[in-house]
Design a protein that fits this description.
The chain has 18 helices and 13 strands. It has 462 residues and is of the alpha/beta class. It folds into 2 domains: 17-133 and 258-425, 3-Layer(aba) Sandwich (Rossmann fold), CATH 3.40.50; 142-255 and 444-459, no CATH class. The strands form 2 sheets. The protein has an 11-stranded mixed β-sheet. Strands 1-2 form a two-stranded antiparallel ribbon. The longest helix is centred in the middle third of the chain and has 19 residues, at 226-244.
Length: 462
């Protein structure tokens, strides 16, 4: 077991004191000491088949081999993820929580203690007045650029899988690889790289990779007539244009400087990613989540401090990136908790990785077809009905042994001033939307008035 500092009111010997005052011993001990034992999955409940007693805490000491959570809608998955994440926050851990609905984000924020308020980053694209700048092209070391370009292409592939092709991949990879070398390059620049010769030449004046330069200067510009350029890039432009037409997305990925630094998150921050699909739409929420995930993957490769990543509805975010993370980031002290509703939501590769490599599985009530598959994971007879008949907020867990668990509600005190957390996050990481839009308008004006045939240093996004 890892040596970790337990959260207490005084960060010393525990006497029941918390930032909220002195709590009853049992409740305070639950909030303060649970994480010292590890990730407590839940409490055992009577199950004659498993020959277990009531009330024994089951601690996930294998959390760095990752946790797979599966179950139908409304059975308690999200509530379990919230409680585990809150425990980590109370223990002073660094975490990121991806919430595709917005409800879990609001619940977790209510339980952030005052002395961790300044650790919180609320990434909420629905907050259109104060967009957080997130530029996945910003400040990438040269040796990491090919990895980042490939990861970002994977994010787009997961979004456009049904219409993916080699030409789309070629334009995206070479475009992203070129913009990575440009000061203040952003993903919004992909559109102008394809359509504005003066901007393209200015970008190429910064590109040192000979193959990327050759693609744009020779294959695309010199040997492809303008009509052919338009025809070949039409599909790519339609897809990019549909994304950046939405100001809520454009104002996030169009800010040249990332105030959201992934290295800071690994150093002890609490990143709450609220991707309310009802406001953003599934495609845009999926893209933003996938782009963030690719950057977290990059940051994980140089991490040493314990870090915990929770993703609800994980199938919606960068399946290829998740497969790579499941197989490769344990040694970097990063744990994944990935939740979804049923196995057919997963890509074949992600399904295989979750069933074959994770150290812990937590199964709430599932359908018949999933129960047949999972029964083997839990050492149950195929005909055993346990997985189809579990009550809400109960689950079977497998992490060295099989246990029947109840998932208690969090016993951490709630703190009402969530608005103060959001205000600090806005001040530290966001900009007023009007400022961002004014800079974009100035960039567009420079582009419209630029000479068509020679590089212009003023074209870079400032």
């Amino acid at each position: 077991m890892r040596n970790r500092t337990c959260y207490t009111g005084s960060r010393g010997s525990f006497d029941g004191r918390t930032p909220y005052g002195i709590l009853p011993y049992g409740k305070a001990m639950g909030a303060a000491m649970r994480s010292c034992l590890g990730m407590e999955l839940g409490l055992t409940i009577s199950n004659p088949f498993l020959k277990q007693e009531d009330g024994t805490p089951i601690v996930n000491e294998r959390r760095f081999t990752h946790t797979h959570v599966i179950g139908k809608s409304g059975v308690g998955k999200s509530t379990a993820l919230e409680r585990w994440a809150i425990d980590d926050i109370l223990n002073g851990e660094a975490i990121a929580f991806f919430d595709p609905h917005g409800h879990s984000a609001a619940e977790i924020l209510k339980h952030v203690p005052p002395d961790r308020r300044r650790d919180v980053i609320v990434f909420d694209p629905a907050d259109r007045r104060f967009p957080i700048g997130f530029n996945p092209l910003h400040n990438i070391a040269r040796e990491r650029m090919p990895f980042v370009a490939s990861s970002l292409v994977d994010s787009f592939r997961s979004l456009w899988a049904s219409s993916w092709g080699p030409q789309l991949e070629q334009f995206l990879y070479n475009g992203i690889a070129a913009l990575l070398e440009v000061p203040d390059g952003t993903l919004v620049g992909l559109k102008f790289l394809l359509t504005a010769p003066a901007y393209r030449r200015q970008v190429l004046s910064h590109v040192r990779d000979p193959l990327i330069r050759d693609f744009w200067a020779s294959d695309f510009e010199r040997h492809m007539p303008e009509r052919e350029q338009r025809e070949r890039t039409l599909s790519t432009l339609n897809k990019i244009g549909a994304l950046i037409a939405d100001p809520s997305l454009r104002n996030i990925i169009g800010q040249p400087k990332s105030r959201l630094r992934i290295a800071d998150i690994f150093a002890g921050k609490i990143l709450i990613v609220s991707l309310a699909q009802g406001e953003l739409g599934i495609r845009k929420a999926s893209l933003i989540g996938s782009l963030l995930l690719s950057q977290i993957h990059l940051g994980a490769l140089s991490n040493s401090r314990p870090f915990h990543l929770y993703i609800d509805e994980c199938h919606q975010f960068g399946a290829e990136t998740l497969v790579e993370m499941l197989s490769g980031i344990r040694k970097f002290n990063v744990s994944l908790v990935l939740a979804h509703q049923y196995l057919d939501q997963l890509s074949p590769a992600l399904r295989s990785a979750l069933l074959g490599t994770v150290g812990t599985t937590v199964a709430f009530r599932v359908g018949t077809s999933d129960a047949d598959v999972l029964a083997r994971e839990f050492g149950l007879n195929k005909e055993h009905p346990a997985l189809e008949q579990l009550a809400p907020h109960t689950a079977l867990s497998r992490n060295g042994g099989t246990h029947h668990l109840v998932m208690p509600q969090t016993d951490a005190p709630s703190y009402p001033k969530v608005s103060a957390i959001r205000a600090h996050s806005r001040h530290r990481y966001a900009r007023p939307a009007g400022d961002v839009e004014a800079r974009l308008a100035a960039f567009m004006n420079r582009l419209d008035s630029a000479p068509k045939r020679r590089p212009n240093k003023k074209l870079l996004w400032r």
